[in-house]
Structure formats: C-alpha cells, structure tokens
Amino acid sequence: MTTFSASDVPSMTGRTVVVTGANSGIGRAAARALAARDARVVFAVRDLEKGREAAAATTGHIEVRQLDLADLSSVRAFAEDFTEPVDVLINNAGVMIPPLSRTADGFELQFGTNHLGHFALTNLLLPRIRERVVTVSSNGHKVGSIDFDDLNWERKPYRAMAAYAQSKLANLLFTSALQRRLAQVGSPLIATAAHPGMAATNLLKFDGRRRVRHLVQKAAAGLFAQGDDDGALPTLYAAVARIPGDSYAGPSGFLEGRGSPKLVGRSAKARDAEVAHRLWEVSEELTGVVFPRRPLQTA
Ligand SMILES: NC(=O)c1ccc[n+]([C@@H]2O[C@H](COP(=O)([O-])OP(=O)(O)OC[C@H]3O[C@@H](n4cnc5c(N)ncnc54)[C@H](O)[C@@H]3O)[C@@H](O)[C@H]2O)c1
C-alpha cells in the first residue's frame, strides 16, 4: 500500500495552484501544504475578508482573489482577470444541505455551486491550465443520481441531502467527461477527483433549522471525523501523485477516514459515460460556457 503524507508533496517552486474555497476546512489545509512546498497559491474565495484572514495565517506565496461560484458573472470575472498560467486547479469549494436556495442564475444552490460553478470555472481557465484539474467529490455521491428532468428542484419537493448527493455525483461525472475530452484533443492535462472521508470542517456547521440532523452529524463527526490536515490528504494526492487521468483518491483508514490516501472506487452511476456526456452538454447549455475551442496544452 502507498503511504502519502503532506511531506510527500514535491517541491512546487514555480508552480501556481488555484484552490477554490481556500479560506476554510480541507481547501485551506491543502493550500497550506502546497504553499509550504513553495507553490504560489491563489485563494479563490467568496468572502475576501475571510480569504485575507486565512492568507495572513498561512506561510508562503499567497494571493487572494474573489470568486463566488454561485454567480456565473463572478466566475467569468475571475477567469477574465486570470491571465497567467495555472498549473493545478483545485475545485474544492462546496456547500452542503442548505435550506432550498438558489444561485444568482437561479440554479439550486448545491448543484449550482458545487457542480455548475466549477464546470464554468474549469472551462474558462482551461486554456491556461498546464497540469491538472482536481475536483473534490464525496462518499455522498454513492446515493446520488442525476435527475435530468428536474436538475434544479423546481418540480419536486426539495430534499437537501439528495441535492448534495446529485452535486457530488456530478463532480465525478464531470471529472470523467473532462478527462475524455482532454484525451480526445491530445492534451497531456489530466482531470482527477478526491474525497476526504469525513472531516470536521465548517461544512458540518450547526444549523438551527435542521436541529436533529445536525446534532446526529455533529455526534458522528465528533466520533469519526478527521482534522482538516488529514482530510486534505486525498486532495493533495489527487493534485500531485503520479496517477492516471480520471483517478479518484480517498482515505484508506477506518470508516474511510484517516490513513494514507489511495485510489478508491466509485458508484456504477459515476461510471456511466452516457450520463457523463449528457451532463456535460446540459452544463454547457445552462452555463453558456463550453469546452474551449482555443488550443489547449498539447502533448
Ligand atoms: N468535511 C467533510 O466531511 C467532507 C466530506 C465529503 C466531501 N467534502 C467536500 O470537501 C469540500 C470542502 O469542504 P470542507 O469540508 O472543507 O467545508 P468548509 O465549509 O470548511 O469549506 C467549504 C469552502 O467552500 C466555500 N464556498 C462555499 N460556497 C462558495 C461559493 N459560492 N463561492 C466560493 N466559495 C464557496 C466556503 O466559503 C468554504 O471556504 C467540499 O466540496 C465538500 O463537499 C467534505
């Protein structure tokens, strides 16, 4: 079995890594580890103030830039301002089981933020990406399915957990479809994915509106969850290890938490190439952002 810890991250001197949601949790821990290996790390954050606070507490070459994944105009503005090369993009930011709410463009918040925001960001940055795109999914993808008839919960009663699971399944389908497209155009870039197991981050923050569910989650997190640094290891592994495109990294320890990261399996639904292709096409329509026609890095 491979063993991998933050000290196995190679020197990142001269490399730029963009981490969405780098002000908190797993993203922050991954960003810290990459900065410690001399990467220039761009904190792509919704709240500039929180981003600056997190950056001030991080040693290394950090830049903070505003990005609201729940607003496509913000995603476009971020990508337009970003004219320099990006070696690794880490699509980490996420929201989990909020009450029904919508993005600026009217998408259900979890599908819109976790999937569509990152879909648009990745495709807009792709001509400047040199190595890989890492997208953070979840074990929760295993109970997810993609409801093409009602992706945004406009017709059926809202079930926040099912919407989270759909968005995390979408993260894996996106990774596979992206990898396929990259290979088709002869690009050496790779798309990988990761999940942290369970980590005690702000994602599990107590929300008075869902008292019982959150108390159960808090208890589970207290018993089983890892800290942010351990939770970030699969992300780091997916970002730097010599692994093939479309790899999915997760933890190997007890209850899939703790322990060295390794490549892990995914649900049958996450391996469905037809669904991945259809989701890609629908995501292009919904966001108005397409796989770039401009030349990508080629082998
Ligand atoms: N913590 C866990 O146990 C766990 C388990 C499985 C998967 N994950 C995944 O890990 C990733 C990181 O989550 P975390 O646990 O570190 O939680 P976290 O709440 O600590 O971090 C989430 C980050 O996403 C950012 N974010 C949310 N909405 C945004 C938006 N509209 N625009 C820009 N940034 C936005 C937040 O500001 C925050 O920085 C998520 O994708 C989550 O689904 C976490």
UniProtKB/TrEMBL annotation:
Pfam families: adh_short (PF00106). The keyword Cytoplasm does not apply. InterPro entries: NAD(P)-bd_dom_sf (IPR036291), SDR_fam (IPR002347). One of its GO terms (molecular function) is oxidoreductase activity. Keywords: Oxidoreductase. The keyword Oxidoreductase applies. It comes from the Bacteria. Belongs to the short-chain dehydrogenases/reductases (SDR) family. NCBIfam families: PRK06197.1. This is SDR family NAD(P)-dependent oxidoreductase. It comes from Nonomuraea cypriaca.
